[in-house]
Amino acid sequence: MVSLKKLVKNPLQAFSNSSKASPDFQPELFDRHVMTTYGRFPLALTRGAGCRVWDDKGNEYLDFVAGIATCTLGHAHPVMVEAVTQQIQTLHHVSNLYYIPEQGALAHWLTEHSCADRVFFCNSGAEANEAAIKLARKYGHTKLGIEEPVIITANASFHGRTLATITATGQPKYQKNFAPLVPGFHYVPFNDGDALESAIASLNSNGPRVAGILLEALQGEGGVNPGNVHYFQRVRDLCDRHQILLIMDEVQVGVGRTGKVWGYENLDIEPDVITVAKGLGGGVPIGAMLCKSSCDVLQPGDHASTYGGNPFVCGVALAVCQTVTSENLIANASARGQQLRQGLLKLVDTYPDTFEQVRGWGLINGLVIKPNVAVKSIDIVKAAIDQQLLLVPAGSNVIRFVPPLIVSEEDVEEALKKLSVAIENTLLER
Question: In the beta sheet, which residues pair with residue 358?
Fold first, then answer.
């Protein structure tokens, strides 16, 4: 096989030279070698700064995707640049067989800013949820005496792409063609306390079977659907009564995105287990499972991760977390989110036949398209690209807005103007 490096001095230049800026953009070399597991938009992004990114032709875009709620500090933030540079020059990876000071410091920040006591580090949200599933199963075996523990999750949830986490995900479209799925999961409607209580009663009718309830504080991929306060308080009560672990998937909403450090803080409850990734590293791959000491049943040899919690990712993630608090980005997320929702509500009023409502907290928001409307979320997302605004769907009828937490008032106003034009153009084509 001929190495790409032998063909060009800079491998990225090969992709850049083969690209086009037009909608029929066909990166031939990319498509030849990269598996088609994504439906990609015709953009080759090569540079970013703040809330802006640029493509290979120099066109500038306002980024309200942020790597799908991942680039907490936007792009090329000086704090991240310094943290990356310093850590890579110092020590980037060692085994978890040794103490890693950066890991301890990040774990301390996470526990100081949450209800948890202990942290396990991994590389992604799916891995964090895998760790939580294993924790709940061992808890069920060792604490509750359950032979085959069951974890309850919600319809329309999303918990990852591994075999266990797509089974936990309450959306059949993600499970199609991957059977046999992992046993031990049961699904209930989200925000329906009666359905949950009935499921627990049924599953536990001949003795304890339910070891955990895994829920998102706000369902991101499921359509930006926030949890109901009264529902989650009932969930917490049911968990206490039946000694069930309440596991909160904070992968998309944790670390300030909802206008609070954690999504569960919007619900006036405390979980037993928290999973986090995405915004934790600001774009550097890291995940974590946090838990209270009362349910920390994992022992040496039970679970591990080669890269999880290495000095590089923990050093950068700690810098991200400290900046979220020192630069008051949680307050900014709350204020800019409110501004964005007000602007989106005006669009609902302007186009009442197209849009139904606006949902969200802080800087994770969804503009909901009415059922049976010809326009789909992907149509408006594509039209927004033409206006040099990047958005992301959350299902076929919800447009998702997840900009960096550093987004400014002017950025939000600009995004709303670009969105308005995109909507108008989309409707004119129908």
Answer: 367
How far is the C-alpha of 35 from the C-alpha of 192, rounded, in Å? 39
Instruction: Give CA–CA dist 289/24, Å, rounded.
Output: 42
pTM of the model: 0.92
Q: What domains are there in the chain, each with its CATH number? A: 4-26+50-76+329-429 (3.90.1150.10), 78-326 (3.40.640.10)
pLDDT tens digits, the chain, 430 residues: what are they? 334 333 334 434 443 444 344 444 467 888 888 899 999 998 999 999 999 999 999 999 999 999 999 999 999 999 999 999 999 999 999 999 999 999 999 999 999 999 999 999 999 999 999 999 999 999 999 999 999 999 999 999 999 999 999 999 999 999 999 999 999 999 999 999 999 999 999 999 999 999 999 999 999 999 999 999 999 999 999 999 999 999 999 999 999 999 999 999 999 999 999 999 999 999 999 999 999 999 999 999 999 999 999 999 999 999 999 999 999 999 999 999 999 999 999 999 999 999 999 999 999 999 999 999 999 999 999 999 999 999 999 999 999 999 999 999 999 999 999 999 999 999 988 7
Beta carbons within 10 angstroms of residue 145's beta carbon: 9
Return the active site residues: 158, 249, 278
Can you tell me whether residue 14 is helix, strand or coil?
helix
Which position has the token pair 């923990």? 314
